[in-house]
Specification:
Aminopeptidase
Length: about 240
């Protein structure tokens, strides 16, 4: 499965032909080069938590998977899924109050890079959907990730993949992060809720208060040049079980 082309197509903006395949250790130099290009082009470098060559090799060596998009046989985008280490003290399953058995069934939606010249083709979300479709749901049930609070593009991407904001706290040496989560065995796209509140994305305290009361963030809207997150409290409180 990991040696063949997953799919082909044409980019929506300018119609370039592309193909998608799983990446391997032989692709590490292209991966690192693209990561550097992307990081250097960011207005807010903190939005990207770059991985080291060792971390990429670990994923490519069996601790996850990475898919890449190629145009003219050049890597223009990639996205990774990681199987987290159970002994990691920063394991997101701990933040989400999952037990050990549940944590073993968790994947991380990891780093995603798109070459600046190919932005606007919705490649980040496209790769996300492809990766989610490749998940072996016999082995894995949960997907989690972290997003910097003002990284609007990444937040939109994760919410569009059916993930929900379930925590907002400091991670990774004191950096404030949303923790988003999805249970792949839950297919209800329109949950029944007892209350709904929209909160300005910059109001960190209000968001944390709602999350503590059992609310979760499910969508993001722009109104009057400001971003608002929709939080709902389901009639039956959300549980990862």
């Amino acid at each position: 499965m990991h040696t063949s082309i997953i799919t082909t197509g044409k980019l929506p903006l300018h119609g370039q032909a592309f193909f998608v395949r799983f990446l391997h250790k032989e692709d590490i130099h292209e991966i690192l080069h693209l990561q550097t290009v992307v990081k250097n082009a960011l207005e807010v470098p903190d939005f990207l938590q770059p991985l080291t060559a060792e971390e990429y090799n670990s994923i490519l060596g069996g601790c996850g998977s990475i898919i890449g998009v190629f145009v003219n046989n050049k890597l223009i985008a990639f996205r990774a899924m990681l199987i987290p280490k159970m002994n990691d003290p920063e394991h997101l399953g701990i933040d989400l109050r999952l037990n050990e058995y549940q944590r073993k069934k968790m994947l991380y939606s990891e780093i995603s890079n798109v070459h600046p010249a190919f932005r606007g083709n919705r490649l980040q979300s496209y790769m996300g959907r492809l990766l989610f479709d490749q998940i072996d749901q016999q082995s894995f049930r949960y997907v989690a990730t972290t997003v910097a609070p003002l990284n609007i593009a990444s937040l939109k991407d994760k919410l569009a993949l059916g993930m929900a904001i379930c925590s907002l706290k400091e991670k990774y040496n004191g950096k404030l992060r949303y923790i988003l989560f999805r249970d792949l065995h839950t297919t209800d796209d329109t949950p029944f809720y007892s209350d709904k509140q929209e909160v300005n994305i910059q109001d960190i305290t209000k968001q944390q208060q709602l999350i503590k009361k059992g609310y979760r963030g499910i969508s993001l809207q722009e109104k009057e040049q400001m971003y608002w997150i929709c939080f709902i409290k389901e009639q039956r409180r959300w549980s990862p079980v």
